[in-house]
Design a protein that fits this description.
It is a single chain. The protein contains 14 helices and six strands. Helix 6 packs antiparallel against helix 11. It starts with a helix and ends in a 20-residue tail after the last helix. The strands form two sheets. Strands 1-2-5-6 form a four-stranded antiparallel β-sheet, with no helix packed on it. The chain has a two-stranded antiparallel ribbon with strand order 3-4. Helices cover 59% and strands 11% of the residues. The protein is α+β, with helices and mostly antiparallel strands and 526 residues long. The chain has a single domain, classed as Outer membrane efflux proteins (OEP) (Up-down Bundle), CATH 1.20.1600.
C-alpha cells in the first residue's frame, strides 16, 4: 500500500511537470520551400549585393524621374493600404501571442433585489467572482498559431515591398511614356513644318500651271493627316500624365509642375536651302536632335544574379505564405490529442438574510475529442493539401520571375537591334526626300514620288521615337522583374504621421504606433 501511494504521488508530480513544461509542437517544422530550378548560366554569377539594383532608376540620369519615385514612395495610396495591412498583421500576431497565457481571466458580479408581498422583508443579494482558465499548450496548438501569424506578418512586409517594386516600375514606365509622346510630337511638328513648305511649293506650282490640282490636294491631305496625328499623341501624353497622377496620389492638374521640359524646336536646326530648294540636314546630330526620352546607361551583357530571383518580394510573399500554411497543419493536428487545462474560481456572495460566503474552486481538467468521425483528421489533410498548393504556387512564382527576366532581356536586345535599323531607315529616308525634292522642283519626277518619301520620313521618325521609348521601358521592366527598388524603404515609415494620428484619435494602440514601431526592418529576413 505504501509503495502504491508513493507511485501515485510520483505519477501526479510527473504529470503536473508534463502539464507545466509542455512538449514538442505537433505538425511539420517548416524548413523552407526547397531549392528551385534556375537557369544554369545565372547560377555561376552570384553576387550578394547589387548597388545598382537598389536605385536602378538612377541609371536614366533624370532628376525629374528621381523626384517622382520618391514622391510615389511617400504618397502612393496602394502603399498606404499595404502599410495598414502590416499593422493588421501585427495586431493579429499580438492576438496569437496572447493565447499562450491564461485564456480566461474574468471578473463577474451581480446584485439583485427580490420583493414578495407575502414576505416581511425583501431579499437583497450580491455576488462577485473571478474565473481563471488556462489550456496548456502541450501539443503546440497556440505556438503553431503564433508561428503562422508571424509568417503572415512577414508576408505583409514582403507584400509592401512587392507593391513598392511595382509602383516604382510603373512610375518609370509612365514617365517614359510621357516623354515618348512628347518626342513623337516634336518629330511630328518637324514633319508638319516640312509638309507646310511642300504644300506651299505645290500651290505655287499649281498656280503657275506646272502641276495638276491633284498634287496640291495630296500635299494638303498629308499635312492634315500629320496634324491630326498630333492630337492623338497629345492624348497619349495625357494618359501617361494621368497614370502618374494616380501613382503619386495627386490630381492630374497637379502633376504638370513635376514634368518640366517642353521641347522648343526651330526649322533652322534641321533644314537648309540649296539653290532655293528645301533640304534636310543629313548629319546625325541634326537628324536625331530631339532628346526627351531618358536614356538608360545599361549593359545587356551584364550577368544575372540568380539569387535576385529568390529575393524578389513576391517570391518572399509566396515563401512566407507557405510557412503560414505549414504551421496551420500543426494547429489542426493538435485537435487529435487531449487538451489539459487548469481552472479556478473565487466567489463572494452576500444576502441580507444570511452571512457572507466565500468559495474557492480550483483544479485541473481535460477534454478529448473522441468519436469525431474523421472531422479532425480530414481537417489535417485539408491543411496539408493547402500547404502543398502553396509550395506549388511558390514554384510558379519563381518560374514566372525567370520568364519575366528572360523576356525583358530578350526584348531589350531585339529592340536595340531594331532601333539601329530604324536609325538607318531615317537616314535613308532623309536622303530620299532631299533627292525627290530636287527632282520634283526640276520637274523630273511626279509628286507621288515626293509624297512617298514624305510619308516614309514621317513614319520612320515616329517609329524611331517609339523604339527609343520601348528600349527605355524594357530596362524598367527588367529591373522590375529582378525585384529592384524596394530597398529604398528600408528603415522608412510604412505609416504616415497623418495616418498614425487618425488611428490614435480613434483607439488605444499602446506602443504599436511609436516611431520605431511604424518603420520597416532595415534588414531583409531570410
Amino acid at each position: 500500500m505504501k509503495s502504491r501511494r508513493r507511485f501515485l504521488r510520483w505519477g501526479l508530480v510527473g504529470g503536473a511537470g508534463a502539464l507545466l513544461g509542455g512538449c514538442a509542437a505537433v505538425g511539420p517544422d517548416f524548413s523552407g520551400p526547397g531549392r528551385v530550378k534556375l537557369p544554369a548560366g545565372w547560377e555561376r554569377n552570384r553576387r550578394k549585393k547589387d548597388p545598382q539594383l537598389a536605385h536602378w532608376w538612377k541609371i536614366y540620369g533624370d532628376r525629374n524621374l528621381d523626384r517622382l519615385v520618391q514622391m510615389a514612395w511617400r504618397q502612393n495610396l496602394d502603399l498606404k493600404s499595404a502599410g495598414l495591412r502590416i499593422l493588421q498583421a501585427r495586431a493579429a500576431l499580438g492576438i496569437s501571442e496572447g493565447m499562450a497565457f491564461p485564456q480566461i481571466q474574468q471578473i463577474s458580479g451581480s446584485a439583485t433585489v427580490s420583493d414578495d408581498n407575502r414576505a416581511a422583508h425583501s431579499v437583497r443579494s450580491s455576488n462577485l467572482g473571478f474565473d481563471l482558465g488556462w489550456e496548456l499548450d502541450l501539443w503546440g496548438k497556440y505556438a503553431r498559431g503564433t508561428e503562422s501569424a508571424e509568417a503572415n506578418l512577414y508576408a505583409a512586409l514582403a507584400s509592401y515591398n512587392d507593391i513598392l517594386v511595382t509602383v516604382i516600375a510603373e512610375v518609370a514606365r509612365n514617365y517614359i511614356a510621357y516623354r515618348t509622346a512628347q518626342e513623337r510630337i516634336a518629330y511630328a511638328r518637324r514633319n508638319i513644318a516640312i509638309q507646310e513648305y511642300v504644300v506651299k511649293v505645290t500651290r505655287i506650282q499649281f498656280n503657275s500651271g506646272n502641276v495638276s490640282e491633284l498634287d496640291m490636294r495630296q500635299a494638303q491631305t498629308q499635312l492634315h493627316s500629320t496634324r491630326g496625328a498630333v492630337y492623338e499623341l497629345q492624348l497619349s501624353r495625357i494618359r501617361a500624365r494621368n497614370a502618374l497622377a494616380m501613382l503619386l496620389g495627386l490630381n492630374p492638374s497637379e502633376v504638370e509642375r513635376f514634368l518640366p521640359g517642353k521641347y522648343r524646336d526651330s526649322l533652322g536646326r534641321y533644314v537648309h536651302r540649296d539653290k532655293g530648294t528645301l533640304q534636310l540636314k543629313e548629319a546625325s546630330a541634326d537628324l536625331f536632335g530631339v532628346s526627351l526620352i531618358p536614356h538608360p546607361r545599361f549593359d545587356p551583357r551584364r550577368p544575372i544574379d540568380a539569387e535576385l530571383i529568390t529575393r524578389r518580394p513576391d517570391v518572399k510573399v509566396a515563401e512566407y505564405q507557405a510557412h503560414a500554411r505549414s504551421a496551420q497543419i500543426g494547429v489542426a493536428e493538435a485537435a487529435l490529442y487531449p487538451s489539459f487545462s487548469l481552472f479556478g474560481n473565487i466567489s463572494y456572495g452576500n444576502t441580507n438574510l444570511s452571512l457572507s460566503k466565500i468559495g474557492v474552486v480550483a483544479g485541473p481538467s481535460f477534454s478529448w475529442n473522441i468519436l469525431q468521425y474523421g472531422r479532425i483528421r480530414n481537417n489535417v489533410r485539408l491543411q496539408d493539401a493547402i500547404f502543398e498548393e502553396s509550395l506549388v504556387r511558390y514554384n510558379k512564382t519563381v518560374l514566372n520571375a525567370v520568364h519575366e527576366v528572360s523576356y525583358a532581356l530578350d526584348n531589350y536586345r531585339y529592340t536595340l537591334d531594331q532601333l539601329k535599323e530604324s536609325e538607318a531607315a531615317i537616314q535613308s529616308s532623309v536622303r530620299a526626300f532631299n533627292i525627290s525634292m530636287k527632282q520634283y522642283n526640276d520637274g523630273l519626277v511626279s509628286y507621288q514620288r515626293l509624297l512617298n518619301s514624305i510619308e516614309k520620313l514621317t513614319r520612320y521618325q515616329d517609329q524611331y521615337a517609339r523604339l527609343k521609348g520601348a528600349l527605355a521601358t524594357q530596362v524598367a521592366l527588367l529591373y522590375k522583374a529582378l525585384g529592384g527598388g524596394w530597398e529604398i524603404a528600408r528603415g522608412g515609415r510604412y505609416l504616415s504621421r497623418e495616418t498614425v494620428q487618425h488611428l490614435k484619435e480613434r483607439s488605444d494602440w499602446g506602443r504599436m504606433l511609436e516611431e520605431e514601431q511604424v518603420r520597416l526592418p532595415k534588414e531583409w529576413r531570410r
